[in-house]
Design goal:
Blueprint lengths: L3 E5 L3 H11 L4 E5 L2 H10 L4 E5 L1 E2 L2 E2 H11 L7 E5 L7 E2 L2 E5 L1 H4 L3 E4 L8 E3 L3
Parallel strand pairs: 1-2, 1-3, 3-6, 6-9
Antiparallel strand pairs: 4-5, 7-8, 9-10
Length: 124
């Protein structure tokens, strides 16, 4: 059985891009809203989560808080995407670190696949 990854993004094109790229090695679940993501987490065994920081009217931080409260072991396998390399809100005023770090997110990925810049940083 292959590991399962949940991708959360409000942009259908990016969900399809992730599904196509990752489905070679993983089972891929997709959600366009935080509510749908929570539903999938409650009904599937998920090994990792990749969530956009801004999902329309939802925040990826809300999903992280839900995971922390209900599935804390999954936090270290949770990744946050943002179109900005200096996302808001910041972590303790440090523009290089995202607020998701204090919730327990594993990694912050700056440079959303739909944006011009791509960089990765660990929220340590």
């Amino acid at each position: 059985m292959r590991p399962t990854i949940l991708i959360v993004d409000d942009e259908q094109m990016l969900l399809e891009l992730f599904r196509e790229a990752l489905s070679v090695h993983y089972e891929v679940l997709v959600a366009k809203t935080i509510g749908h993501a929570v539903d999938l987490l409650q009904t599937h065994v998920v090994d990792a989560v990749i969530t956009d920081l801004n999902c329309g009217n939802d925040s990826g931080l809300d999903l992280l808080r839900w995971i922390k409260a209900h599935m804390p072991a999954l936090l270290s396998s949770t990744f946050i995407l943002s179109a900005s390399s200096q996302p808001e809100p910041t972590y303790r005023g440090d523009p290089g670190r995202i607020a998701g770090h204090d919730v327990g997110a594993g990694v912050f990925l700056a440079g959303h696949p739909g944006s011009r810049s791509h960089a990765a940083g660990r929220g340590s």
